[in-house]
Specification:
heterodimer, A: 486 residues, alpha/beta, B: 382 residues, mainly alpha, two-stranded antiparallel ribbon, 4 strands, 4% strand
Chain lengths: 486, 382
């Protein structure tokens, strides 16, 4: 390949090429990387991103977001209060429910009996934090590493708008996902890997649909969309060479292709031709890099054991957690693990148990593993879903069974690492875990806080579209939740 | 004979009538009422504030006698007394062919738009478009036969110095084709393209489990079509918004969730992986190779020339022929030393292969065909 001369490039072409994530060309390595704002700090080179970012030094270099799709019950996991034992079986007072908009699934119910969790809770850590002892024994063990926010709230009450809202900042479809915003703003630090990776695992409960838009790029360039790493078949779509055509044969083909494209460049002098040559080379490198990352054979047994018995199963949440750590080590900026199956309208006690069996140990293991490697210092870990669930039973409340409907007025998430307080609880709900009584955190605020930890002012990360400077947090005010930051 | 066939076709069509949805206005006394929503809340209409169909007050009123419905709106938009609609339309045709509009903010002709680079030309085109009776085909023909459109895309250093954005169009713009065009181009050069117009959408090749990975309870599976439905133009590909066709999305095809006037044009490694490894493209390369083998050209150089003509509309240069001949020979030797790999390589796709061609030779030509289809020149409009 010919050495590339940046002086031959127009400013526009330079910006086009450098303003990207996964598509950051090898060309930009030949440019002086110090020209590009380095959000990753010393020793790490950045490809693409906006020169204005970081707006200020951020504590986080990357985010691992464990997204619990379907709406996990905050009451049964983190927002328990002993007084709920007394409320069990009583009718939800109008003074608590006010005139809340209910989903069509329980709005026709004649009675709204409150249900205390049908599990045992314990108090853990330095601050005696209540955690479900039956379901989350491992999470209980790392409670001193995390901040639990109990006062998240959202306007949406159904899955599609709610999950779209929290992931893209708008209930209406078409906006870029948070990962796409980050790829657009911060670029990538490993040119052989996508800057934004998504992995999906299936729980055993009711699986609500996911949508490509949750990791989509909306109106941002398509290269910023999350790359779905798949557990079965090829980890990245179209990654494998066809049968009968091995890597060596492909190498030879690409060499010829490069020569031909160089001839074309001599003729047209269009820098885009050089960029295309680089992208083909990048594709070739991804073909070896990505499968290597997905292969956990080299992980020592004690690490695999840390993540639990399901680690051996490709496509499990446990496997994905371990892979997330491997991606983080390789410089992937935003790693999002979707775990499906949290929609317990009925048979909640048995189904939420299954869900927690799948996620408790791996989620805690990921924290420990990151911490041991010193990576929790600059990795922001987030755990939560699109909304919470109602204190009242959906359907009939029996001695050992009940369901819970969607609830957006309050729900819980936890965060850890990268400047988030260790061993802390934030926000308070009422006795029914139904309304927020202290320190509400809108999902916009949560998203603004995540950006803030990465060194981004959510008001300044914008993209002009349809006459508006669009941003992840939308047009309404959002506040960084400074109280949870160390 | 032909008449009997047509009569049978008519009889068949009459036997199973096709339902087609149409829309029409309710009668005036049954019009759905629309109200101002109190502070935007969908469940708080202000019954005293009825909204009636109309156009914004700041703009001219509906034409005299025009009904306040979609017909009236269409008449209003296309009134000869204002050029705005025609300007916007010709600007978009211009963008389609030249990569950028004469007004670069193609989705915004308002106060914040960028001014046109050639205002006189834009107005002339707009008036000409209206006076021709809004004849789109004529307009496109006019643009593609213009001197400007036919200029070379070679970028001279003088262009770069004096007009780095190429606003003056001293050279023809080069830009990557849209994803749909890239697939259609591959199908067309391979001879596989099914040119049928209209009809229901089709489901061509898609990697396994894309739909059920995201669908409710994983129940929804993609059932791929067969036969010539696999080779229809990409505009007929079935589009599922929650899980769009990945080989299109990777090429910046919008998800169809929001209206997109101006597509992004990115250049990523994933795009290379599509045109190198997607069965749709591999099969096209295989068929393209077969097309070359079937032609009356038997010399390697002549076949390469022919391939260049199909894919890039020009002949290959001596150096290009040399590079591809070497590639062909290397691959031929490789496949001949392991003929089973050639057979495996040729297996891709559902269209049958002409078995009369030697597998190793066919496979080696497939590599050449694929290389040509992956040239920057094949993927780019220049």
């Amino acid at each position: 390949m010919q050495p590339f001369n940046p002086l031959l490039e127009t400013r526009r072409q330079f910006l086009l090429r450098t303003g990207n994530g996964i598509g950051a060309a090898a060309l930009s390595t030949m440019l002086n990387p110090s020209l590009i704002g380095s959000a990753m700090g010393e020793g790490m080179q950045q490809y693409g991103g906006l020169p204005s970012i970081p707006h200020f030094p951020g504590k986080a270099k990357r985010v691992i977001y464990m997204f619990m799709a379907g709406g996990p019950s905050h009451i049964d996991l983190f927002d328990y209060k002993p007084i709920q034992r007394k409320l069990h079986g009583t009718e939800l007072p109008d003074s608590v429910r006010q005139d809340q908009r209910l989903t069509g699934m329980s709005s026709g119910q004649k009675s709204f009996p409150c249900v205390a969790p049908m599990f045992e809770f314990g108090q853990y850590g330095e601050h005696q934090t209540w955690v479900n002892k039956d379901l989350l024994p491992h999470t209980a063990g790392v409670v001193d590493k995390i901040t639990i926010v109990k006062s998240l709230h959202t306007e949406a009450v159904n899955h599609d708008p709610a999950i779209t809202f929290i992931n893209t900042g708008a209930q209406q479809q078409g906006k870029p996902s948070m990962g796409a915003w980050l790829s657009y703003g911060m670029g990538s630090v490993n040119e052989n890997m996508p800057g934004y990776v998504v992995m999906i695992s299936r729980g055993r409960g009711q699986l609500q649909a996911l949508y490509d838009r949750l990791w989509g790029s909306g109106f941002l360039p398509a290269k910023h969309q999350g790359v779905k790493l798949r557990s079965a078949g090829e980890p990245v779509l179209y990654l494998k060479n066809p049968k009968g055509f091995d890597r060596e044969a492909r190498r030879g083909q690409l060499d010829s292709l490069e020569q031909l494209n160089e001839l074309n460049y001599d003729k047209f002098a269009d820098p885009e031709i050089q960029a295309r040559i680089s992208q083909y080379e990048l594709a070739f490198r991804m073909q070896s890099e990505v499968p290597g990352l997905m292969d956990i054979e080299g992980e020592p047994d004690h690490v695999k054991e840390l993540y639990g018995p399901q680690t051996d199963k490709p496509g499990s949440f446990a496997r994905n957690c371990l892979l997330a750590r491997r991606m983080a080590e390789k410089g992937v900026r935003y790693i999002q693990l979707f775990h499906r199956g949290w929609d317990q309208h009925g048979a909640l006690p048995s189904k939420i148990r299954q869900q927690c069996e799948d996620i408790d140990q791996p989620a805690a293991a990921l924290l420990k593993d990151l911490d041991q490697r010193g990576m929790l210092e600059d990795t922001l870990v987030v755990f939560g879903g699109e909304f919470g669930r109602t204190i009242y039973s959906q359907g009939k409340l029996t001695k050992d069974n009940h369901g819970r409907d969607h609830h957006g007025r309050c729900f819980s998430m936890w965060m850890a690492g990268a400047g988030v307080k260790r061993g802390f609880e934030y926000g308070k709900t009422d006795d029914h875990s139904y309304n927020i009584v202290e320190n509400p955190v809108h999902i916009r605020d949560m998203n603004a806080t995540i950006l803030h930890q990465l060194g981004i002012d959510h008001n300044k990360l914008t993209f002009k579209y349809q006459g508006l400077d669009q941003r992840l947090t939308g047009v309404e005010e959002a506040h960084v939740v400074k109280d949870i930051l160390a | 004979m032909a008449k009997a066939k047509l009569e049978k076709q008519i009889a068949d069509l009459n036997r199973k009538p096709v339902t087609s949805m149409i829309m029409q206005d309710n009668p005036p006394n049954k019009m759905r009422m629309t109200y101002v929503l109190d502070r935007g809340a969908y469940d708080s209409p202000k019954k005293e504030e009825v909204i009636r169909p109309g156009v914004p007050k700041a703009l001219p009123p509906l034409p005299e006698g025009a009904p306040a419905n979609r017909l009236g709106l269409a008449q209003w938009l296309t009134q000869p007394s204002h050029p705005l609609t025609a300007r916007v339309a010709v600007n978009r045709y211009w963008m389609m062919l030249f990569g950028e509009g004469l007004v670069r903010s193609v989705g915004d002709f308002g106060a914040q738009s960028t001014p046109p680079t050639h205002p006189g030309l834009l107005d002339w085109l707009a008036v000409d478009f209206m006076e021709s009776g809004w004849d789109v085909k004529r307009m496109l023909k006019q643009l593609v036969t213009s001197k400007t459109y036919r200029r070379s895309s070679k970028i001279e250093s003088m262009h770069r110095e004096k007009d780095s954005e190429n606003e003056l169009l001293a050279h023809a713009p080069r830009f990557r084709l849209q994803g749909e065009f890239i697939r259609d181009h591959a199908l067309a050069v391979s001879g596989l393209l099914n040119p049928m117009v209209g009809g229901p959408g089709v489901k061509p090749y898609q990697p396994a489990n894309i739909w059920n990975e995201v669908s409710l309870n994983g129940g929804l599976r993609y059932k791929q079509d067969e036969g010539d439905k696999l080779y229809r133009r990409s505009m007929y590909t079935y589009w599922k918004r929650s899980s769009p066709m990945p080989n299109m999305l990777i090429f910046d095809s919008p998800s169809r969730e929001k209206c997109v006037i101006q597509r992004q044009r990115t250049n990523t490694p994933l795009q290379a992986l599509v045109t190198l490894n997607d069965p749709q493209f591999l099969e096209a390369a295989r068929a393209f190779a077969e097309r070359l083998l079937k032609s009356d050209k038997s010399e390697t150089a002549a076949r390469i020339d022919l391939a260049y003509r199909y894919a890039t509309a020009r002949l290959a240069t001596g150096r290009e022929v040399e590079i591809l001949t070497q590639l062909y020979q290397k691959n031929l030797a490789r496949f001949q030393s392991a003929p089973e790999t050639a057979k495996e390589f040729l297996k891709v796709g559902e269209s049958p292969r002409d078995e009369s061609f030697d597998a190793s030779e066919h496979a080696a030509w497939m590599v050449v065909a694929q290389t040509i289809m992956n040239l920057d020149e094949s993927l780019t409009r220049n």
